[in-house]
UniProtKB/TrEMBL annotation:
This is DUF455-domain-containing protein. Coiled coil: none annotated. Keywords: 2Fe-2S, Iron, Iron-sulfur, Metal-binding. It comes from Lentinula edodes. It comes from the Eukaryota. Residues 45-60 have a biased composition (Basic and acidic residues).
Length: 533
């Protein structure tokens, strides 16, 4: 029975594959892939269509009075392969006499799109899809059968897999400038995207290589390459379960020509001009690329039970942040202000350092405080550029904002997942995500989390008001001793560092207890300034 509304039909005629994420009333998540077959493409491998071609295809379909049934063949299946968890977004689609199958990019197991069965004996879940006319408007709508394990599922993300930035993979630095998302200047990289000596073989190795790459162009290129390789089966191992995983740097390096200053020294306030604002945002996006790789490289080995969907979500985030950085950098060239020509600060990384011992803390502070704060202030920033008549920058900022909603969603998804794991370890004793989140903020944040809030987009991302109303951090620096005592207080569940986290930290030679940085008060204040101006 079709119970979950996906979208009006015309909205999914633009592409053949979509990442589809559902959330239930109980705030559980379910990751799916929607395939739409057409008579001309069902047997084709992944297609990367240009915008013009896509527009023509939509016109063709909308003008197709014949009711071509094949054009309406829509399938929904699990987002990850039941064998070893590969992402199915780049599966090959192969058509046989009586069936159509999706072929996993990692080990080539094929799964019937209708039944989910594979000849190997494995089976994935597939869901019935129906196209129904709205009784009032007659609009054709796509609905699907509800997954088990939750009530009142609704779509929180429906995003085309095809993305000009994501595919095909870059072959050289010049490919970036060719498609208009980056502009070469003093930052051109001299190293190859894939190192000739000891090329990375796993996602963890790529993550650490990218974190250690100071050149922003090369960081973007390597991100594009690694994510594409992971999705298409050129990399078939996450690599987080090996005995000696690669160690991420304490802080990713920056090019020596870049001037890193104390957060308070960055121009702020009402007089910041457009170029300065765009430069500040590009700086945040460059750190955001690193944050997405760092959460995988740092916490993957600590939490070996993290499912493949975790790495799929955060590698997608790394790719999004690379796209954002490139789009902003292209806008900066329009203002004759190359990226790196103004000072930058590293305040966002201070929050990463502060939360480097606990995945719960990292998800809470980076994704549910910092990124959620971005949702509050982005519309105001967009409004400023609209008033200035800068349509190109408005377009860029709107793309960024839409993606950021999905990043907060991912933060919420994995925060809730961590709480569920903790609940299971405690024999079912309730671990309430809202309470745990508020405790993390109390412990790892300084000062009030102030509105006005973008309630609508926060809700889309899973953050109901109970998460953030009257929220206050009580972290007080530089009283390290007091904070260490608070962090290690075993009466507070959320303040505990898991045994796995402690074990991996000890192997890596880190001291026990939380990690602090000097000047954190100034750093956090600067982050707020960055978002709020
Ligand atoms: S066949 Fe899909 S992960 Fe192995």
């Amino acid at each position: 029975m079709a119970e979950v509304f996906i979208s009006p039909l015309h909205n999914i005629l633009s592409h053949f594959r979509f990442i589809l994420t559902l959330r239930s009333e109980e705030r559980k998540y379910h990751g799916l892939i929607l395939f739409r077959l057409s008579s001309s493409s069902s047997s084709a491998r992944y297609e990367d269509e240009g915008a013009d071609q896509r527009d023509r295809r939509v016109d063709d379909l909308e003008n197709d009075d014949s009711g071509n049934a094949l054009n309406r063949q829509i399938y929904v299946m699990e987002a990850t392969c039941p064998h070893l968890g590969a992402e199915m977004s780049h599966a090959d689609i192969e058509e046989y006499e009586d069936s159509v199958v999706a072929v996993c990019p990692w080990h080539r197991y094929d799964f019937d799109l209708k039944t989910g069965k594979s000849e190997t004996g494995l089976r994935t879940c597939t869901y019935d899809v129906q196209i129904m006319a709205d009784p009032k408007t007659g609009e054709e709508q796509v609905w699907m059968e509800a997954p088990q394990g939750g009530r009142n599922w609704r779509v929180v993300e429906l995003r085309p897999v095809s993305d000009e930035f994501a595919d095909p993979p870059p072959e050289s630095i010049s490919s970036l400038s060719a498609n208009g998302v980056a502009t070469p200047h003093a930052q051109e990289a001299t190293e190859p995207v894939v190192p000739e000596k000891n090329p990375p073989k796993t996602l963890m190795e790529w993550a650490v290589l990218i974190l250690n790459t100071p050149n922003p162009t090369l960081k973007v290129e390597r991100t594009r390459y690694a994510v594409h390789a992971f999705r298409t089966g050129a990399i078939t191992s996450v690599g987080n379960k090996v005995a000696h995983p690669p160690v991420p740097p304490a802080q990713p390096p920056r090019e020596t020509y870049m001037t890193i200053v104390e957060p308070g020294k960055i121009q702020s306030g009402k007089r910041r001009n457009k170029a300065v604002m765009l430069h500040a945002l590009a700086n945040i996006e460059q750190w955001a690329i690193d944050l997405a790789w760092d959460i995988m490289a740092r916490f993957g080995p600590m939490h070996k039970d993290l499912p493949p969907a975790f790495f799929a979500d955060f590698s997608k985030m790394a790719l999004d942040e690379s796209k954002h950085f490139s789009l902003l950098r292209a806008r900066l060239t329009a203002f004759s202000t190359p990226y790196g020509s103004l000072p930058i600060h590293a305040s966002l990384w201070d929050s990463a350092t502060l939360t480097s011992r606990s995945l719960l803390s990292r998800l809470a502070i980076i994704h549910l405080v910092h990124e959620a704060r971005g949702l509050d202030v982005n519309p105001k920033t967009i409004e400023k550029f609209k008033k200035a008549g800068d349509k190109e920058s408005v377009d860029v900022l709107e793309v960024i904002h839409a993606d950021e909603v999905t990043h907060v969603t991912a933060g919420h998804r994995w925060f809730v997942w961590m709480c569920e794991q903790q609940q299971q370890r405690q024999g079912g004793l309730e671990v309430n995500p809202v309470q745990v989140f508020r405790e993390e903020v109390r412990r790892c944040w300084h000062g009030d989390i102030k509105g006005p809030f973008n309630v609508e987009d926060r809700e889309k991302a899973g953050l109901s008001r109970e998460f953030y109303d009257d929220l206050k951090g009580e972290m007080s620096y530089p009283d390290h001793e007091e904070n260490a005592r608070m962090t290690m207080n075993k009466t507070t569940k959320s303040a505990e560092i898991s045994p796995e986290e402690t074990q991996v930290e000890q192997k890596r030679g880190n001291r026990e207890g939380p990690v602090y940085t000097d000047g954190i008060q100034e750093a956090l204040a600067a982050v707020r300034v960055t978002y709020e101006t």
